[in-house]
Amino acid sequence: MSAAHHPSPKKNGHGGGYEKQDVGFRFAMVFVSALIAAVIVVLIFLVWFYRVMVPPAPSAQTPVAQQRPQPPAPVLQANPAADMQKFREREEQKASTYGWVDEKGGIAHVPVERAMEMVAERGLPQWQPPKATQEKKP
């Protein structure tokens, strides 16, 4: 349909609005339905063709990957948040309880609050100056 060809409405109320010689509504609907059906059939064929022609992807664990030595720990954190929570719980327990660090050497750990009280009562231990400075002093 060209822009120049516009049927003028007739005065008796018949005609006008569209050309009846053009494609009919029923034929247009059949054509659109057939086009949609053809697209669906082609898509189904392409999916089938892709699955037949493209080999499946190799699995993540190939024989070469299985023979590779594992790196030293920590290898991988599967759940970093849970690991951090466990670490904080261990550290909190260690900082709030008594226990041995080296039982044979007589080294123990005490709760942080108790350690602060002990330092306040006794003061910090006197450190020996380094040997290089001891030799120079008369």
Q: Count of DSSP helices?
A: 5
Based on CA inertia axes, which overall geometry fits? elongated
Q: Structural class of the helices, strands and pairings? A: mainly alpha
Biggest β-sheet: count, sense, barrel?
Answer: 2 strands, antiparallel
| Unreliable runs | none
Spatial order of the strands forming the largest sheet: 1-2
- Radius of gyration from the alpha-carbon trace, in angstroms: 43 Å
N-to-C span: 116 Å
Q: How is the secondary structure organized here?
A:
Elements: H1 25-53, H2 63-67, H3 80-96, E1 99-102, E2 107-109, H4 112-122, H5 131-136
Antiparallel strand pairs: 1-2
Short description, anyone?
With 138 residues, this protein is mainly alpha-helical.
Overview of the molecule:
Strands 1-2 form a two-stranded antiparallel sheet. The protein is mostly helical. 49% of the residues lie in helices and 5% in strands. A hairpin with a 4-residue loop joins strand 1 (99-102) and strand 2. It contains 5 helices and 2 strands; from the N terminus they run αααββαα.
Task: Describe this protein with a few key phrases.
two-stranded antiparallel ribbon; 5 helices; elongated; 138 residues; single chain; 2 strands; mainly alpha; 5% strand
